[in-house]
């Protein structure tokens, strides 16, 4: 019974990573898993959204340009379901101006190509607090 209590008291943070480029998902899995979090990857933002409520991720890290649903659309829908959802928007095609006038903004914006150490530090800070 004590083991069960300790598992409940300190759940493993879940990080959703959403990008239509499989190689970038594999990179994210490789660099974020050592942080002690469960990394769940998606090539389709609509699939990530379907699993969002059940998984209750600590952090959603999403690319901007992904076809039918953009990263900003995903962030908006995640925040509709959980107004306090922590998010990071990553893009190599747009800059921070893309969300300057948006009603829902990501917590952080990271430009591609990103510095791995800076991304890891940002993710570490966001899942810690």
Explain what this protein looks like in three dimensions.
There is one protein chain. The protein has 129 residues and is of the alpha/beta class. The chain has a single domain, classed as Rossmann fold (3-Layer(aba) Sandwich), CATH 3.40.50.2300. Helices cover 42% and strands 19% of the residues. It has a five-stranded parallel β-sheet with strand order 2-1-3-4-5, sandwiched between helices. β3, α4 (71-81) and β4 (86-91) form a beta-alpha-beta unit.
How many DSSP H or I helices? Answer: 5
Q: Biggest sheet, in brief?
A: 5 strands, parallel
Structural class computed from helices and strand pairing: alpha/beta
Order of H and E elements: HEHEHEHEEH
Strand runs, count: 5
CATH homology group: Response regulator
Lateral arrangement of strands in the main beta sheet: 2-1-3-4-5
Looking at the chains present, what oligomeric state does this protein adopt? single chain
**Tell me, what's the shape?**
globular
State the domain count. 1
Global Rg:
15 Å
Helix content: 40-55%
List the helices and strands and how they pair.
Blueprint: H1 2-9, E1 14-18, H2 22-32, E2 38-42, H3 45-55, E3 59-63, H4 71-81, E4 86-91, E5 108-111, H5 116-128
Parallel strand pairs: 1-2, 1-3, 3-4, 4-5
Helix pairs in contact: 3-4
């Amino acid at each position: 019974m004590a083991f069960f209590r300790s598992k409940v008291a300190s759940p493993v943070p879940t990080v959703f990573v959403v990008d239509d480029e499989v190689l970038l998902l594999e990179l994210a899995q490789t660099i974020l898993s050592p942080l002690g979090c469960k990394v769940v990857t998606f090539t389709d933002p609509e699939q990530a959204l379907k699993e969002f409520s059940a998984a209750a991720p600590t952090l959603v890290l999403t690319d901007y340009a992904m076809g039918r649903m953009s990263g900003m659309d995903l962030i908006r829908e995640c925040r509709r379901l959980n107004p306090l959802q922590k998010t990071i928007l990553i893009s190599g095609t747009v800059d921070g101006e893309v969300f300057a006038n948006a009603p829902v903004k990501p917590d952080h914006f990271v430009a591609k190509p990103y510095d791995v150490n800076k991304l890891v530090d940002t993710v570490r800070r966001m899942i810690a607090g």
